[in-house]
Amino acid sequence: MSTLACTSVELKSSFVKAEAHSLKDNVDHPKDGVGKTTLIQKATQALKSSGIPIDGFYTEEVRVDGRRTGFDVVTLSGGRGTLSKVGSDSTTARREYRVGQYVVDLVSFEQLVLPVLRNVNLDSGTGKKVCVIDEIGKMELFSQSFIRAVRQTLAGSGTVILGTIPIPKGKPLGLVEEIRSRKDVKVFSVTKENRDSLLEDIVTTVQNCRK
């Protein structure tokens, strides 16, 4: 995924972009699996330990008997909710939001994430907050409210974003392309080979964004 950084004059936000090793990786897995969430978690701990105010969320695989059955959203304050689960092939009467075999639980996602994004935009009087958004991908972008909240956070002056976006593939995702093209954003491409060496650069970039 990619690390983004701030306004056109100076960096404000960071996003991490994962690079898949083959087209098959991209098709079979809605989340890329190169370890970007682990990298974001390590960066979050480093920033917290230096006293920087930080909030947000990350996505986490759910596995049963070694088989991936879905993804949860986990907030930095300890909240947890369903992002998606493996769905049946049969159609249902109600509308389903799907990415491959996964059915997205939009209500659960929005109930957990939207309050976090609203709160992080409030002036805390403790300097610029860091907002972790892992990730801005196909599943999350079914939510128009989430798209509006991310844009509002990007437009604000009191928040630095540390987030993740997917590699370009298939039909472009509007918000992802907006983020990728911003002059106030720095993007880090993450692979299994370079993910450990990027940690210090990402933490330093975020710290500089707060200045």
UniProtKB/TrEMBL annotation:
It comes from the Eukaryota. Pfam families: NTPase_1 (PF03266). InterPro entries: Nuc-triphosphatase_THEP1, P-loop_NTPase. Keywords: ATP-binding, Hydrolase, Nucleotide-binding. GO terms for molecular function: ATP binding; ribonucleoside triphosphate phosphatase activity. PANTHER family: CANCER-RELATED NUCLEOSIDE-TRIPHOSPHATASE (PTHR43146). This is Cancer-related nucleoside-triphosphatase. It comes from Alligator sinensis. The lineage of its organism: Eukaryota, Metazoa, Chordata, Craniata, Vertebrata.
